[in-house]
Design a protein that fits this description.
Its EC number is 2.2.1.2. It is found in: Cytoplasm. GO terms for molecular function: transaldolase activity. This is Transaldolase. Pfam families: TAL_FSA (PF00923). The chain is an alpha/beta fold. It has one domain: Aldolase class I (TIM Barrel, Alpha-Beta Barrel). The chain is about 50% helix and about 10% strand. The protein contains 21 helices and twelve strands. An eight-stranded parallel sheet has the order 5-12-11-10-9-8-7-6. A two-stranded antiparallel sheet has the order 1-2. It has a two-stranded antiparallel ribbon with strand order 3-4. α11 links the parallel β7 and β8. The chain is globular.
Length: about 500
């Protein structure tokens, strides 16, 4: 029997509680991660008491489609009330919207003014009495999230300001924290105290991360409650060294979930082959998951099925509404790699396909999402209150300056989806984004783009494999670079 150990976590009024966690004995990397997370000290959580504590779950009324009426934008709620037996349009049929085909060329480049945008929110731009971000959710059913997080941004009210303007969640990753921690002095006091109290640089890192995640989650908690648990999430990623370690990922997810101790946290797990069974396992244990680094439709289907399997194996009561998940489908990185290969081919047909693959692939992933939600296997779970695993469009900042700055937002708008936007893209859409359902306007056109890309000699399976390897390596490098910097700083701070 595995030995037991404890991790101390913050609770209401900063009261520490002890949670017993079995010590894994199978893997050296996992043992190291467990040891590090156990050193995370109790963190202040005064705001949690005012919000009603860090535990608990939310129930909701389920429909025949498995989607919560309380989480629908207003126009979807009224439509359902007028026809209670109807399945919401997001699942039943595509929109009749006549927006431009995915196979048509991107529109002319937008103005470059947003490129130098700072993290502070711009002056309010509204449509009627609502901002464009609020309209995006209320009219089209898409939740705009922010793909960034830093301690100063939370402390100075910047995060709350964007929530008030319509942002409904936050994603983070090792690269974001590497930039935040190494680029400011906001973490120096806590880091110095941790080092002087005997923490290692890596243990101190997790303490810094957990505190930021907790503080952001507390800011989002009212939205989480108001939305019935549909939005108001903040994501924190498992250690990048565990991307190819199933059991290590499971153990790390458990520890992070308990260390953060908030109901609106998503634990991010990469969609590697090793990550797929880990997703099912942690969902079955009641841990909500943001599945990251999805680069192909085939892998997306595996991710959807892993979520379903986890719900089917859920070890709690019969109410599945307390569990949640998003599937993060990466977009702009696909175009960056495919465009490079199209340029190398150089034929007129190949060159005409530049800037089209990523959007087409995401649109086909959404089409698959609707089909999977109509299957009897999902419907059985929906009857128990299960929430759909919303597709989340990630990597939505343009990397080619010739493309419009809102290209990967305007073309991927549709119900029951999330788009997580980096700072500049968020502000660009807030300023001049187009609010119109486009995600399923031309599925046949999207299929034609993918077929044409394959026809000119590009293997999208090969592209996906390469991007997954690069994504895992990039997060690992950010983590390693930050550890090196923190270790060097720690030597100077030791008493």
């Amino acid at each position: 029997m595995a030995a037991a150990a404890s991790i101390s976590m913050a609770a209401a009024a900063a009261t520490a509680v002890e949670v017993s966690i079995p010590t894994p004995t199978h893997n050296a990397a996992t043992r190291k991660m467990v040891a590090i997370l156990r050193t995370v000290p109790p963190l202040s959580s005064s705001g949690l008491a005012a919000l009603g504590g860090g535990g608990g779950s939310l129930s909701r009324r389920s429909l025949s489609s498995g989607l919560s009426i309380s989480s629908f934008p207003p126009r979807f709620r009224s439509a359902h009330r007028s026809s209670p037996s109807a399945i919401p349009m997001a699942i039943s049929k595509p929109s009749s919207s006549s927006s431009s085909s995915a196979s048509s060329p991107p529109p002319p480049p937008a103005a470059a003014a947003a490129a130098a945008a700072s993290q502070a929110a711009p002056a309010e731009t509204e449509i009627g009495t609502k901002t464009k971000l609020q309209q995006l959710f209320q009219l089209e059913g898409q939740s705009p999230w922010l793909d960034n997080l830093s301690r100063g941004f939370i402390a100075d009210g910047g995060l709350k300001d964007w929530i008030d303007k319509g942002v409904r969640g936050v994603t983070s990753n090792p690269t974001i924290f590497q930039k935040s921690i190494s680029g400011t002095s906001d973490y120096d006091d806590q880091f110095a105290q941790l080092i002087q109290n005997g923490s290692t640089a890596e243990s101190a890192y997790w303490s810094l991360v957990v505190k930021d995640i907790q503080d952001a989650l507390d800011v989002f908690r009212p939205l989480y409650v108001e939305s019935g648990g549909e939005d108001g999430f903040v994501s924190v990623e498992v250690a990048p060294s565990l991307a190819h370690d199933t059991q290590g990922t499971v153990e790390n997810a458990r520890l992070l979930h308990k260390a953060v101790d908030r109901p609106n946290v998503y634990i991010k797990i990469p969609a590697t082959k090793a990550g797929i069974p880990a997703i099912s396992q942690v969902i079955s244990e009641g841990i909500s998951v943001n599945v990251t680094l999805i680069f192909s439709i085939e892998r997306y289907e595996e991710v959807f099925d892993a979520y379903v399997a986890g719900l089917e194996a859920y070890k709690g009561d019969d109410d599945l509404s307390k569990l949640s998940s998003v599937a993060s489908f990466f977009v702009s990185r696909v175009d960056s790699e495919v465009d490079k290969r199209l340029d190398a081919i150089g034929t007129p047909e190949a060159l005409s396909l530049r800037g089209k693959t990523a959007v087409a692939q995401a649109q086909l992933a959404y089409d698959l999402f609707k089909k999977k939600c109509a299957e009897p296997r999902w419907q059985a779970l929906a009857a128990r209150g299960a929430r759909v695993q919303r597709p989340l469009w990630a990597s939505t900042g343009v990397k080619n300056e010739a493309y419009p700055d809102t290209l990967y937002v305007d073309t991927l708008i549709g119900p029951h989806t999330v788009n997580t936007l980096p700072d500049a893209t968020l502000k660009a859409f807030y300023d001049h984004g187009a609010i119109k359902r486009t995600i399923d306007a031309d599925v046949a056109g999207a299929q034609a783009v993918i077929q044409a890309v394959e026809r000119v000699g590009i293997s999208l399976a090969e592209v996906a494999d390469q991007l997954e390897r690069e994504g895992v390596a990039s997060f690992a490098k950010s983590f390693d670079d930050l550890m090196a910097a923190l270790t060097a700083k720690g030597v100077l701070l030791k008493p």
